[in-house]
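Before surveying the methods themselves, let us examine one representative protein, written as a sequence plus integers encoding its fold.
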Amino acid sequence: MATPSTKTSMWMQLQQQYVKGCVLWGKYNLTQAVIALSRALICSYFFNQAYTGLTIWYYYKQSFPWLNVWLLPCSILVACKQRINIFASIMAVIALYDVLIIFGSQITVWYQHGYLYINELMVKKMSLLGSIGLILAFEWQNDGGRKPSAVAGLLITQAEKAMSDQKSLVMLIGRLLMSTLFLYVGYTEVKRQLESVYTDAAGHVHHRRAAGDGHDNMWSKLTEFTLSIPFIVGFKSNLTARLLALVLVLEAMVSWLWFLSPLNIGYKIHAREHFTVNVGVAGALILFAHIGAGKYTVDNYLKKTE
């Protein structure tokens, strides 16, 4: 027969287990919310791409976007976590097709005229291709299309410990690609911004860009460029990924609020695409930070040397 002290001890153990379970359940719910937010942000770009194609077709009487129109239902279903393996794969194929078309045309221009022009929007489209691939990788990592784990990816440190060499290599490639894009954009866009300001013969300073043009800023590009340096080598990569995501969202809210722009409808469509590209890449960076950077980082090297 259990003594009062034994009953008290058992009750305290039950209370401790209950509190521990509540903490784990809270972390699990927060994890699911972060993943859902990341997925929705990434899908917003693809939804906008389909919507823009339909808008141009309706108002400007251009050809019907037979390929991009499939992004409309696919993006909604993926954002709602419905058959992600199928519909995200369709989105990835369409995104890959767009990237190949864009860069194919630029390579043609380079071959014919001797120069290669790649702007900010084009390279961020590559990031969106990687972003939808990250959704697929995360889905396959957790359930492999079969049975999802209830606590998969609950803590970033746990995810990193469980990450295989192959998955770490994938995360390394993704980090290098994203970093290269930020570095390139940071350099070229700041250079273009400086070239847009000139002084005439009378000493008056002029600006080639119209007032309200979202391209007319350098703070976000300089910040992205700076944060890319530790991110590319994997130093505090989870923190820098979150900071990069924050800067992208701030840039979208400050520079690319298309519905407040005083410029024409063509610019508004362009600004809306910049907005959704920014929040889409931000979503991918949030997901990257949640999964973890893997083994091939400066952070992991420093841990081994301690």
